[in-house]
Amino acid sequence: MYLHRNIYLTGLFLLLLACKNTPVESHFFSYSTGKDYPAYGGNNFNNRYSPLAQITKENVQNLQPAWQYMANDIPDTTGGKPLRIRETQCQPIVVKGILYATSAELNVFALKADTGQELWKFKPNLATPKQPGHANRGVTFWENGNDKRILYTAGYFIYALNALTGQPITSFGDSGRVDLHAGLQDGLDHDVMKLNVRATSPGIIYKNIYIIGSSLSEGGDSAPGHIRAFDVITGTLKWVFRTIPQPGEYGYDTWPKDAYKKFGGTNNWAGMSVDEKRGLVYFGTGSPSSDYYGGARAGANLFANCIIALDANTGTRKWHHQAIHHDLWDRDFPIPPNLTTISQNGEKRDVVVQVGKDGYTYVLDRDTGESIFPLEERKVPEKGLPGEHPFPVQSIPVKPKSLIPQVFTENDITTISPESNAFVTKRLKEFSPPSTDQFTPPSIKGTLLFGYSGGAEWGGNAIDPDGTLYQNVNIAPWELWMEDRETRNKEITTLSKGNGLYLKNCAACHGVDKKGSGNIVPSLTDIGKKRTNAQITLLIQMGNGRMPAFPYFSEADRAAIADYLLNTETKAIITTREEHKSPDTSSKPATAFPYDPDYSIKIWQRFTDQNGNPAIRPPWGTFNAIDLNTGEYKWTVPIGEFPELTKQGIPITGTETYGGPVVTASGLIFIASTRDERLRAFDKTNGNVVWEYQLPAGGFATPISYEVNGKQYIAIAVGGGRGAKPGGWYMAFALK
Questions:
Q1: Peptide bond between residue 129 and the one before it cis (omega within 30 degrees of 0)
Q2: pLDDT of residue 513
Q3: Could you give the C-alpha distances from 426 to 114, 413, 606, 610, in angstroms and in order?
Q4: Which of these, 227, 281, 328, 367, could form a disulfide with 312 (CB 3.0-4.6 Å)?
Q5: What is the rounded distance in angstroms from the CA atom of residue 327 to the CA atom of residue 323?
């Protein structure tokens, strides 16, 4: 016994000695005790699994708040609500008893994880240069001996901070920060530095390499979504993987010649996973710009809508799987892929698991990208808008079955009341004809689509060691109406300048009537009660959250839109087309930037009943368990409740969800994310709710589990928002 013990201690000493001057790679972050939650997603496999088991189904009723911390600063006193306050979407991390997270204002802070006591807070200067506000979903930790760093993004920059003090590490980049535009300019004629480039999800660490994607505009002024890697120590750019290939690169022939000079997007905004043993980084990408019309980008458009494996040292492509060819439906991959091991025919297989907005779950071999379950390749509608080139075939997994519906039919019309049923039945007749295929191209006659704001969303999912996937999804149809450029220009010439600019650039999301679309796209009818003129013009210039920036607008254009929104315009009607004229692309080269498509969005809003509820019969939000070994569902339950509907005798409908789950070794799954602002614990064996707590605001984020001094905690950002009351807290729960 003692011999074995001495051998173990000797081996442990040698391991620690070897690691003393070597970067601590993230597979050491798993910490066999599971005490910490040291990376976004829990570990670099992004499984959101905690081996802690102190909180069980038997004692979870004793779970109570342990501490609460207000992360947001006090609102300013300059009039109106502060410009950068928005919901908090951050999934915190915990390393050696310290919790690191961000606020809605993009500050980053450190707390004692057992008490919530603030240790430090860092506030980036987003005013110089003026930078966009955006969501931040987490931070990244790295250490080598006494060198401990937090890397995170705010505005246009990656910051490196001392994890013990919060002070910038001045030897990193330019005085502690690196510009996110780095590595994007090569081969382009336009100035990338003028474009909106930020990152909402944190980067990931492999050895001394920090790998990150980006969040971009989805219009014609989008930057390219290339993947970049930076040296953790110096901030030096190490490699770039171009998601829109340039001449001589693999995939260049899947685009028109020199398309890379004109189009952007194809970015990874959702985060990544790393397999340290294989030295590979895995991620999913989104659609090319601009959304919903691809007439000038004929071809499959690699590497858009792909699951990709790269050599983490060099950025060299190992393999890719394109899920959607020539995307016309904005079907990005919205969450990081998971890395896990499943059993197939008695053999263990290491796999990548990627869930999409369209509700499909891709289970791919980690070494080759081969699909574990069969794929159905079928012909799809090829008739699109004039000039469009819909791809003739698409390929989708046969198993697991999609988490959400793919088309909306009369049989799907809501039944929550006779009035709602009649309203939606009448509205459905406006679409001529209704969509009968999930790959029906967008149309000026209207198209009903699933997949926006779900199925899967940015909160992610959880996978336990037995290969069960736990995924929450939204089930809500959206209606899309396209409009040609000539018609749009004729319409705006009869309007005031501000109204015309609004119609061209803002109405697709916020509506011609400025009423928005529920809590997804806010109403602007009373924006004067929330924002000053100066705040609105800055918001238009810099963007905010989902709202893109409009850096190409002149100061006069921004002022005109603000005046229109505030009902203070003095010039009622435009007498010349010049002030509203779109760029004349007929005489411009094929690579003209920014790209102004022949067709663009006229209306893009939720398809609802007269009360704003989804037009489809419930459930509107579900929580699901899928056995990845077989591809079969274990259970599906509604998640979230509208109390006012429950009081009417309507069965639990579920609500939209933003934020994901964490699963623990004791068989509990913790998730908030619902409109009813509750944190819940589910029994992983059957999907039953075994505990719930009414939060002070919406918990639209993903909870974590960690241990300090022998006590297990569950913590979550309680940011509020999405049309409900604001928040800004972080809360931790423990057994009393």
A1: yes
A2: 79
A3: 56, 11, 16, 11
A4: 281
A5: 9
How far is the C-alpha of 39 from the C-alpha of 676, rounded, in Å? 28
Residues of the chain with pLDDT under 50: 1-32, 76-85, 573-587
Confidence at residue 491, expressed as pLDDT on a 0 to 100 scale: 78
Q: Return the closest-CA partner of residue 224 out of 281, 177, 181.
A: 181
pLDDT of residue 493: 76
Burial class (CB in 10 A: 0-12, 13-18, 19+), 587: exposed
Reference 503, options 560, 552, 446; nearest CA is 560
CA distance 625 to 663: 11
CA–CA distances in Å: residue 706 to residues 62, 164, 410: 17, 19, 47
Q: What is the largest CA-CA distance in the chain?
A: 94
- In whole angstroms, how far apart are CA 214 and each of 117, 141, 203, 315, 561? 32, 19, 9, 16, 28
Residue 55 tokens read as 């909180």
Report which secondary-structure segment, H or E, holds 681: strand 678-683
Q: What is the pLDDT of residue 568?
A: 86
| CA separation for the pair 520, 505 (Å, rounded) | 17
Rounded Cα distance between 624 and 387, Å, is 40
What is the amino acid identity at position 445? K
**Partner residues linked to 362 by β-bridges:** 354
Contact status, residue 370 vs residue 395, Cβ threshold 8 Å: no
d(CA 84, CA 448): 33
- The helix (run of H) or strand (run of E) holding residue 328 is none
Edge-to-edge strand ranges of the sheet holding 704-708: 63-70, 726-735, 711-720, 704-708
**Rounded-to-integer distance, Cα 633 and Cα 298, Å:** 38
Residue 502 sits in a domain whose CATH number is 1.10.760.10
Per the structure block, which two tokens stand in for 730?
């972080």
* Amino acid making up residue 299: G
Angle 407-408-412 from CA coordinates, rounded to 5°: 130
- Asked if residue 660 belongs to a domain, the reply is no
Could you tell me the residue range of the domain that residue 495 belongs to? Answer: 482-606
Q: Are 178 and 157 in contact (CB under 8 A)?
A: yes
For CA atoms 521, 526, 527, 531, the dihedral sign is: negative
* Residue 576 CB coordination number (10 Å): 8
SS (H, E, C) 350-375: EEEEEECCCCCEEEEECCCCCECCCE
Which residues, at least 6 apart from 174, have a Cβ–Cβ distance to it below 8 Å?
235
Cα–Cα distances in angstroms (integers) from residue 221 to residues 240, 243, 494, in the given order: 21, 17, 26
Residue 446 CB contacts under 8 Å (≥ 6 apart), including other chains: 430, 431, 432, 479, 480, 481
* Other CB atoms within 10 A of residue 182 CB: 18
Query: What is the amino acid identity at position 191?
Result: D
Residue holding tokens 């100061």?
Answer: 555
State how many domains the chain has.
Answer: 1
Whether residue 600 contacts residue 583, with contact meaning beta carbons closer than 8 Å, is answered with no
Instruction: Please check whether residue 337 is in contact with residue 469, taking contact to mean a CB–CB distance below 8 angstroms.
Output: no
Q: Is 39 among the domain residues?
A: no
CA-closest candidate to residue 472, choices 703, 723, 203, 281: 703
Instruction: Specify the pLDDT at position 520.
Output: 66
Q: Quick one: which H or E segment has residue 102? A: strand 98-102
pLDDT score at 15: 38
Whether 258 is covered by a domain: the verdict is no
C-alpha distances in Å from residue 263, one per residue of 82, 186, 214, 219, 295: 34, 14, 15, 9, 12
Helix ranges (H only) for 147-281 are none
pLDDT at 246: 98
Say what the pLDDT of residue 730 is.
Answer: 98
Extended strands (E) in 515-611: 599-606
Cβ distance 442 to 385 under 8 Å? yes
CA dist., res. 709 & res. 711, Å (int): 6
